[in-house]
């Protein structure tokens, strides 16, 4: 795996393509390009038989350059790094930051590819791929690109654990319109990997993400809710809203596993009403959460004459 960092400071784990798959993709591309070149050459020879030898030579050179050099460049530019051979092998050319390539990247790769692939029969490209830690040839080095695998077996590392059942529907009134996609991506990546992190590091990351999310939503993080559980509950609320927009009705919200406790690893045991699953608990040495009396239990120190006070809100209506 190769870890790349995007412009939004999001770490991406990409699997670089190795020499065998890249060689097969290049071979398929060359076979397709040669087939097109032979077909175009036959058509030109038939239609330009009356021209002199110099004109026919110029047309043959132009055909070679356009088909075998310009063709792959145009295909990679229009397909954003997926030629015919790469699509067959499940590969794609991306930038060093993981983004799609543009014309200049495809142009540099194509021009240098003429030297290291066509003129040297791929010897230079093979040597460069062996030397490079990520299997890059010279065209990738000068263009700032990387060939990665798109077909990767799906693992359970992308599973976002559900929030504690007692947080179901608690954040239904949050305004999530101002939360950018980059922050949602960072939160999902944290939730899928938080069990692999050191407890102290994971706790600090959750606090930072929860603070950023609370700043975007305009509502503070509840004091009796662990930051990881808060993030999971807000992500689930967003998924429920997207499902409602897509399918409509309350059935879409019911499809989101809101009240399903975590059943994997140490998170199988849930604490009492004021706590969270063990996976969301604080690290060793961190201040305990959920130990304060819940607001829904009311307060025993309510001032006299506040019989109209609504439990759990602290709001006293005027007399």
From TrEMBL:
Q: Where is this region: Disordered?
A: 262-319
Q: What is its main location?
A: membrane
What the entry lists under Pfam families is as follows: RDD
Q: Does the keyword Transit peptide apply?
A: no
The Low complexity compositionally biased stretches are 272-306
State where the protein is found: Membrane
What does the UniProt keyword field contain? Membrane, Transmembrane, Transmembrane helix
What InterPro entries does the entry give?
A: RDD (IPR010432)
Q: Quick check: keyword Membrane in the entry? A: yes
- Annotated ranges, domain RDD: 17-144
Tell me what topology the record assigns in the membrane. Answer: Multi-pass membrane protein
Q: Where are the transmembrane segments?
A: 23-45, 57-78, 111-131
Q: What is this protein called?
A: RDD family protein
The species this protein was found in = Streptomyces massasporeus
Lineage in the entry? Bacteria, Bacillati, Actinomycetota, Actinomycetes, Kitasatosporales
């Amino acid at each position: 795996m190769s870890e790349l960092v995007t412009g939004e400071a999001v770490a991406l784990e990409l699997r670089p393509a190795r020499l065998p798959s890249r060689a097969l993709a290049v071979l398929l591309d060359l076979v397709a390009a040669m087939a097109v070149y032979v077909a175009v050459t036959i058509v030109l020879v038939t239609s330009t038989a009356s021209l002199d030898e110099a004109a026919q030579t110029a047309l043959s050179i132009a055909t070679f350059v356009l088909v075998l050099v310009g063709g792959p460049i145009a295909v990679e530019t229009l397909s954003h790094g997926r030629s015919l051979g790469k699509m067959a092998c499940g590969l794609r050319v991306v930038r060093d930051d993981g983004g799609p390539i543009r014309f200049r990247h495809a142009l540099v790769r194509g021009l240098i590819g003429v030297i290291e692939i066509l003129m040297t029969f791929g010897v230079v490209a093979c040597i460069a791929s062996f030397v490079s830690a990520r299997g890059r040839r010279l065209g990738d080095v000068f263009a700032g690109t990387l060939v990665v695998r798109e077909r990767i077996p799906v693992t359970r590392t992308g599973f976002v654990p559900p929030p504690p059942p007692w947080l179901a529907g608690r954040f239904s009134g949050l305004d999530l319109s101002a939360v950018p996609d980059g922050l949602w991506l960072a939160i999902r990546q944290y939730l899928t990997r938080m069990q692999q992190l050191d407890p102290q590091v994971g706790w600090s990351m959750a606090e930072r993400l929860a603070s950023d999310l609370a700043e975007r939503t305009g509502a503070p993080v509840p004091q009796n809710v662990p930051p990881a559980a808060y993030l999971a509950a807000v992500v689930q609320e967003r998924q429920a809203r997207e499902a409602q927009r897509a399918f409509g009705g309350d059935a879409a919200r019911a499809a989101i596993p809101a009240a399903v406790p975590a059943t994997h690893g140490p998170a199988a045991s849930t604490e009492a009403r004021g706590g969270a699953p063990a996976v969301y608990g604080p690290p060793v040495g961190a201040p305990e959460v959920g130990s304060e009396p819940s607001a829904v239990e009311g307060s025993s120190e309510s001032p006299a004459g506040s019989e109209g006070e609504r439990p759990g809100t602290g709001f006293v209506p005027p007399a």
